[in-house]
Design brief:
4 domains, OB fold (Dihydrolipoamide Acetyltransferase, E2P), alpha/beta, Rossmann fold, 5-stranded antiparallel beta sheet, 5-stranded parallel beta sheet, 485 residues
């Protein structure tokens, strides 16, 4: 097993080194370990597929552990990442980069060794299960887990791995279909393609998008079958994840308060879109139920209690606006619109119908989760107002007040202020702000952000000259500065 450990504390690195050596001696296995003192060195020297397990300190100068993990995920989607920290406050954030575990310092053999046993066991299973490929140059064994998709062109079958490697063989796809399709994670999308559902990011009408960004075609006859198979696969994965004997993917010290799993009702008649958003929610520990129309919605809320409802606008029969008005009279959970309709008129209708937020489907996965998480947390806590000294943000009515006098902000200005205040002291780049407010619209170099930010700052400073709530960090971006107590 190969382990990389990154921590800026020399004493902590020494402790990890001792624990690894003790584990290696007690289990009589070989472990290659490498140690890094900061996130920059770690990212500069690491290569995709080089390590089986990575331990990252969360709080480090410069690039912190979560930031390093995000960049690492661009290179390696499957490596197991364990965060270590003296505080549980970053545990939820670690979900966004697929954390395998979250350790609270100090770490000792009693807690560390069982986890390593689990990792070793999973790695041994991965090594045992796979395809043996033979060609004129070599014989290689490909792990099922690391196989992203298979394609055949003419008489050449190409096996694409998650780390970017491709193994080619002169053969027919039928030579491997039986063995691959016998496994629940593999599916044929086209006469020339097989995919691993574990590595699917989204399913569109005519193609599958993998987590590495590859577009795999879906034949017309197989569209419905592929969408249904993916939804079943996600549901099966969820069932296994929450089985009584299953181990949680993330853990914190049991003495600390920590949010449990949220149950979310996702209402969308497009199975592909539903599977995509459900995958994001499930990756953060949520339980997701599906409904295709208003009739299903009202039946399901009678049978179960939900922490949040995500509601599409366009559906057969009753539209989302009408459904929302009825839902708000029957449940206390927040209703969030999730729609491809980006026009401001539709967003206004959504808020008028009782929706607590309106998320467009061009929103990034990370921002989508942050919005859903924030709304559920506020609903659970009963908070609909955020107070920063004299500045008050009323989330239910989407308005801002300064010393009890209303600031007449546009919808965009309110969203920018809410985005910045949600992570006080974090420096938001213009690109981050643009992505958060305007989704995947073409980047204009920052002019739009600068214009709206300038207007917002003038309104805040005119309302209260004693404090600058938004600070410009030259060369970097903007950050929200709360009032000191």
């Amino acid at each position: 097993m190969r382990i990389a450990i990154c921590d800026d504390d020399e004493w902590e690195l020494e402790q990890f080194s001792k624990l690894v050596k003790e584990y290696q001696a007690s289990r009589e296995i070989n472990i290659d370990s490498c140690f890094f003192h900061n996130g920059t060195d770690f990212l500069c020297e690491i290569e995709a597929g080089e390590y089986d397990l990575i331990l990252l300190d969360v709080l480090m100068p410069g690039i912190n552990g979560v930031q390093a993990a995000r960049e690492l995920r661009e290179m390696d989607k499957n490596v197991k990442i364990i965060f270590v920290s003296s505080s549980p406050e970053f545990a939820l954030e670690s979900y966004s980069v697929g954390a395998y575990y979250y350790f609270i310092k100090p770490i000792d053999a009693n807690s560390f060794f069982p986890l390593l046993d689990k990792v070793v066991s999973e790695l041994s299973i991965q090594k045992e299960q796979g395809l043996v490929l033979k060609n004129r140059k070599c014989i290689v064994k490909v792990s099922f887990q690391k196989l992203e998709y298979v394609e055949v062109i003419n008489k050449t079958v190409s096996f694409h791995l998650t780390n970017g490697m491709v193994h080619e063989m002169t053969a027919a796809l039928t030579d491997f279909e039986e063995k691959l399709l016998a496994r629940p994670e593999f599916l044929k999308t086209h006469r020339s393609y097989l995919i691993n559902l574990s590595h699917v990011q989204a399913i569109r009408d005519n193609c599958v998008i993998t987590k590495n960004g590859h577009s795999i075609p879906i034949s017309r006859k197989r569209r419905g079958l592929v969408q249904d198979a993916y939804v079943r696969f996600l549901c099966q994965s969820e069932t296994e994840a929450f089985a009584p004997d299953a181990q949680p993917a993330l853990s914190v010290d049991q003495s600390e308060d920590f949010d449990g799993f949220w149950r979310i009702l996702l209402v969308d008649d497009d199975a592909g879109d539903g599977a995509y958003w459900a995958g994001i929610l499930r990756s953060h520990g949520c339980i997701v139920d599906f409904a295709n129309n208003g009739e299903d919605v009202f039946q399901m809320i009678e049978d179960a209690s939900y922490d949040c409802v995500l509601l599409d606008v366009r559906m057969p029969g009753e539209d989302g606006f009408s459904i929302c008005e009825k839902l708000c009279k029957r449940i206390n959970a927040p209703v969030i619109f999730l729609s491809c309709l980006t026009e401001s008129d539709n967003q206004i209708k959504g808020f008028a119908a009782g929706g607590i937020d309106y998320i467009t489907k061009d929103t990034s996965a990370e921002l989508f989760w942050v919005k859903v998480e924030t709304r559920i947390k506020l609903a659970v806590s009963g908070r609909t107002r955020l107070c920063y000294g004299p500045l008050l943000l009323d989330l239910s009515e989407r308005r801002a007040l300064m010393n009890e006098k209303e600031l007449f902000l546009t919808s965009v200005e309110f969203d920018i202020l809410l985005q910045l205040s949600g992570q006080a002291d974090h420096i938001f780049t213009p690109e981050e702000i643009f992505a958060g407010i305007w989704g995947e619209q073409p980047w204009d170099g920052g002019q739009t952000v600068q214009t709206h930010m300038s207007r917002l700052r003038r309104k805040l400073e005119k309302a209260w000259e004693e404090h600058h709530f938004i600070e410009t960090v030259w060369g970097k971006g903007y950050r929200f500065v709360p009032v000191n107590d």
